[in-house]
UniProtKB/TrEMBL annotation:
Keywords: Flavoprotein, FMN, NADP, Oxidoreductase. The keyword Flavoprotein applies. This is FMN reductase (NADPH). It comes from Halolactibacillus halophilus. Residues 8-165 form the Nitroreductase domain. Belongs to the flavin oxidoreductase frp family. InterPro entries: Flavin_OxRdtase_Frp, Nitroreductase, Nitroreductase-like.
Length: 248
């Protein structure tokens, strides 16, 4: 064990922060950690927008009833971004580039690049004693997010990261065991796979029954049936296409 692995294994999302803004040195360090990430074809196809304006934070928070979107030490919006790549290209080059970045491949690259940067930021933040919570619920009103931050074509908001000094103690949430997520040389057969899930269900049932807050009776497999019965956001596909991503 070393301190990096220790930080990673101790991860838990934090949703209640003190009012203290992130100190400037901490913010710079976690931005540097994000910027240092691996990136496909050196594209660095992402942008981070720090949100400190209380009105913009309140507008973001109005999208869902998650007060930690505004009550935190800092909020960062992560976007997939090919706008900057075309800024210094000539008009003819732009036409071809703008066409090519609309492929699913370039959309996936931007999504993966942004996610790796965000996770580097999260680990760096947690190593400094800063809590973090990813915020996917901003997708519930992508038009509002786009308007709030003047996002041009080829820039699509993906998720946010609420950051701050923790004002709560959370238990670590158990994750799927190695037997359910790491296979060697071939995909696991369903019998062995199910056995691993049944074992995990027992762990998570105990966790939900005994955790300090929001106790409930549930298992992971039951929860997933419910979750994947939810229809997801109908606006997402047209929005992404309007931003000239993933159109072909
Ligand atoms: C892409 C992404 C989006 C998320 N969106 C939200 C969100 O909108 N609100 C929230 O409270 N938690 C959100 N989470 C946090 C997850 O609920 C959390 O990571 C998961 O339950 C596991 O708990 P843990 O992070 O404490 O281990 C999100 C996590 C990810 C990776």
């Amino acid at each position: 064990m070393n301190s990096i692995i220790d930080t990673i294994l101790n991860h838990r999302s934090i949703r209640k922060f003190t009012e203290q803004p992130l100190i400037a040195e901490h913010l710079d360090m976690i931005i540097d950690a994000a910027r240092s990430s691996s990136t496909s074809s050196y594209l660095m196809a992402y942008t981070m927008i720090g949100v400190t304006d209380p009105e913009k934070k309140a507008a973001l928070a109005s999208i869902s009833n998650q007060p930690y979107i505004k009550d935190n030490g800092h909020f960062v919006l992560f976007c997939g971004d090919y706008h900057r790549h075309m800024l210094k290209a000539n008009e003819q080059e732009k036409v071809t580039m703008a066409y090519n970045v609309q492929s699913t491949e370039y959309f996936m690259i931007a999504t993966v690049d942004a996610t790796i940067a965000a996770q580097n930021m999260t680990v760096a933040a947690e190593s400094l004693g800063i809590g973090a919570c990813y915020i996917g619920s901003i997708k519930r009103d992508l038009d509002l997010v786009s308007d709030l931050f003047d996002l041009p074509e080829h820039v699509v908001p993906l998720f946010g990261l609420a950051l701050g000094y923790p004002d709560e103690q959370q238990e670590i949430k158990p994750k799927l065991p190695k037997e359910a997520v790491y296979f060697e040389n071939t995909y696991k057969d369903d019998v062995a796979h199910k056995a691993a899930l049944e074992q995990f269900d027992k762990t998570i049932e105990t966790y939900y029954r005994t955790r300090t807050t929001n106790k409930r009776e549930d298992s992971w497999t039951k929860q997933m049936v419910k979750t994947l019965h939810n229809q997801r956001n109908d606006r997402l596909t047209p929005f992404v296409k309007e931003k000239k991503f993933n159109t072909r």
